[in-house]
Design a protein that fits this description.
Helix content is 61%, strand content 7%. It has helices spanning 6-21, 31-39, 54-64, 70-80, 82-101, 131-202, 208-243, 268-278, 280-302, 339-404, 410-445, 462-465, and strands at residues 108-115, 121-130, 309-316, 322-329.
Length: 517
């Protein structure tokens, strides 16, 4: 019986050991992503929770029993978002590509048995390994590690994008819900006004034109309420989709207030520094360029020896003598000298360097644009809070006094109250837009904004804005000048129209049907 040569077995063991040294864990680890997220103020990700263990349902049920705050929405998304499951799969795919890159080709075992004329046989046994794979194994392992680093940046960036999308959807839904409530209150008030106008018209106190104007205003307000309700439902479904909830889990209630702007905004220079050092899209582009630069160097150095193999061969002649020794086969670069591979590697590197420059420009310009947008929206919010809303409230108070003395009719008072509600709606939408531009700024920076630590005060709730006249005034410590008394739009039973002599029919103008939907 012929024994396979010990040298051949040694070569096979050597190749296996080289492949084993370059092997990696087959599955990604939590630490591969969690560290990148925690360094940027992002949430922690437990990849194992994506398999939906029983404890997950208990945690989510506990969060859904309470009003859905922004923090709770983010935590639910980290556990249930289908997008995160896709990103986990992407990371696993990148891990598999790393494993594939550090593997060498399987050895080839050859066997021949030739008959010799006159009797006897010649048997030949050989073992060969791909020389090119062996030479490239250390370099491939290094490149694969760098490419996995790039994949980590991309997946972590995608997770932060998901968080930003959830935050934007939460701000949009909470605001849309408040706006829908305000539009409903306006619709109810104008409907009651139209009903009162019909009684006045039947008594001969107002003209047919005035009645038609009140009825048209009520119809317009009802249209606005229906549109606002549909808009709130659309935003809610968008948030539910991002959270990965369905069925009974989608019956949660949201918080009814928004945070006010932070006490002080971040300096642009600080945000630029954070973006240059921590923007994951930029880091991924740099890692890709580094990988391709190393790959180009390898292509230049090894393009002459592609397809080469080394091996060991043992041959037994018919007379019983044994021939043994190493074997090498080299590819002669006569026709294909690797020009195409080299050109491809150079082009890929040039494209990667261009992407790095584009990512740097996008990050820097995005930070500058974002800080300007935040500053502008902050001023808009302040103007609403300190000027427009208090002014509209003051107008309602003065009109209420005039109506009490029968200097104006109830319809003019309702017109002033509609304008006040419009101002509140515009204020809440301005607060929403302020936070939306901050979310986009944080997305560009690639890091939670440092000033987020100063979030404390919140906007008034819908109940506070629409509170009945007899309710005590709300705390104005964070809403200077906002008096929420007298917000009930329903006409009182004793309300009377203004004397007709003061305002002839052809000069009487009504603007309350211009309320924003």
């Amino acid at each position: 019986m012929n024994r396979f040569p010990a040298r051949a077995l040694l070569a096979l063991a050597l190749g296996a050991s080289l492949a084993g040294c370059a092997s990696l864990a087959p599955q990604p680890r939590d630490a591969d992503i969690s560290q990148l997220l925690s360094e940027r103020g992002g949430p922690s990700v437990d990849w194992s929770s994506l398999s939906a263990p029983p404890s997950e349902h208990a945690r989510i049920a506990q969060w859904l029993d309470e009003p859905m705050t922004l923090e709770a929405a983010t935590r639910v998304a980290m556990l249930r978002s289908p997008r995160l499951r896709e990103y986990y799969a992407r990371l696993g795919l990148a891990r598999a590509e790393v494993l594939e890159a550090v593997e060498i080709g399987n050895p080839r075992l050859s066997f021949q048995r030739l008959s010799v004329e006159g009797g006897g046989h010649v048997r030949s046994t050989g073992l060969s390994l791909p020389l090119f794979d062996l030479l490239l194994l250390p370099a491939n392992a290094r490149l694969a590690g760098k490419d996995y680093e790039r994949a980590r940046y991309e997946v972590a960036g995608a997770v932060l994008d998901t968080v930003a999308d959830v935050e934007s959807a939460w701000y949009a839904y909470v605001t849309a819900r408040q706006v829908a409530g305000m539009r409903e209150a306006v619709a109810e008030g104008t409907a009651a006004s139209a009903e009162l106008a019909a009684r006045f018209h039947a008594a001969g106190n107002i003209s047919a034109l005035q009645l038609a104007q009140e009825q048209a205003a009520a119809s317009q307000a009802r249209i606005g309420a229906l549109q606002a309700r549909a808009d709130a439902a659309r935003h809610r479904l968008g948030l539910v989709t991002l959270l990965g909830l369905r069925g009974e889990e989608a019956t949660w209630e949201a918080s009814d207030t928004l945070p006010l702007p932070v006490p002080a905004e971040d300096e642009p220079a600080q945000l630029l520094e954070l973006a240059r050092a921590g923007n994951l899209e930029l880091l991924a582009a740099r890692a890709e360029a580094e990988v391709l630069a190393d790959a180009l160097g390898l292509t230049r150095a090894l393009r002459w020896i592609g397809g080469s193999e080394i091996g060991y061969e043992r041959e037994k002649e018919g007379d019983g003598s044994v021939l043994r020794g190493p074997d090498i086969s080299l590819e002669l670069p006569v026709f294909n000298q690797g020009q195409a591979k080299l050109a491809r590697a150079e082009a890929r590197l040039a494209a990667a360097l261009a992407r790095v420059q584009q990512a740097e420009l996008s990050a820097e310009n995005g930070v500058l644009t974002g800080t300007q947008a935040v500053a502008a929206m902050r001023e808009v919010v302040q103007t609403h809070r300190l000027a427009l809303v208090p002014q509209r409230e003051s107008i309602v108070a003065r009109q209420q006094e005039r109506q009490n003395f029968m200097l104006i009719g109830v319809f003019e008072l309702i017109q002033a109250k509609v304008a006040e509600y419009d101002a509140y709606q515009s204020y809440l939408e301005a607060v929403r837009d302020y936070w939306l531009v901050r979310v986009e700024l944080a997305r560009v920076v690639g890091h939670r904004l440092p000033s987020d630590a100063g979030i404390e005060a919140r906007t008034p709730s819908l109940d506070a804005i629409l509170g009945p006249p007899e309710a005590p005034a709300m705390d104005h410590s964070q809403h200077q000048g906002m008096d929420h008394s007298g917000h009930d739009m329903s006409p009182k039973a004793g309300d009377k129209p203004a004397p007709k002599a003061e305002e002839p029919e052809d000069e009487h103008q009504h603007h309350h049907h211009g309320a924003t939907p």
